[in-house]
Amino acid sequence: MKFFIDTANLDQIREANELGVLDGVTTNPSLMAKEGIKGVENCNRHYVEICSIVKGDVSAEVIATDYESMIKEGTALATLHPNIVVKVPCIADGIKAIKYFSEKGIRTNCTLIFSPGQALLAAKAGATYVSPFVGRLDDIASDGIELVEKIVDMFNYYGFETQVLAASIRSTQHIIQCIEAGADVATCPLSAIKGLLNHPLTDSGLQKFLADHKKVNS
Ligand code: E4P
User: Fold this and answer.
1) Is residue 128 lining ligand 1, measured as CB closer than 6 Å?
2) Entry pTM
3) Tell me: the pLDDT tens digits for 135-192?
4) Atom 4 of ligand 1: nearest residue by CA position
5) Which of 3, 118, 156, 184 could form a disulfide with 163 if both were Cys (CB 3.0 to 4.6 A apart)?
6) Which of 107, 134, 105, 104 shows the shortest CA–CA distance to 122?
């Protein structure tokens, strides 16, 4: 399973990249706003900067919600860097735009997926990725991981090449569940990725190894 980091924060992207296991980055308008990045020029510069740090796909989301404007905005985003993936919301004009981008060879990530039917439409339109939002479904007492499982099964059954990019990951446990569900990618906060390292037996085992080494080497 590939790991993307879900942030527009350059320090966190660098830190995750330095671990050597980062495969890409996802951003969204809220994450860009959180970093105080405003205006098209600044956003574009930021996306290019992210692409210079990470060797992998970087999702950049369109703000437009009508077909013509999405095409214009997405085409401009795709020209910023070969690793840019145009992120498009799962609405009717978004599905049409994904079809257009797919025919032009521009890669897409269909975002705000909350049902298998939405994922099917995006895949049929030729999306490179679909992003089911795990945490936001859990927030409303639904089952985000179950949605990931259903989409993975559907894509396998029908042979879609669209990759399942589990998004809205909130915890290390979510990442483990995404692996079990067969997601192609999980986009995660840095803390959740680092959480995978934690195990008390690793800590106590290392302490014992070092103590035993010290006993005979001091
Ligand atoms: C990434 O592609 C999504 O926009 C993001 O994971 C949403 O996460 P949130 O539900 O924590 O805002």
Assistant:
1) no
2) 0.96
3) 999 999 999 999 999 999 999 999 999 999 999 999 999 999 999 999 999 999 999 9
4) 28
5) 184
6) 107
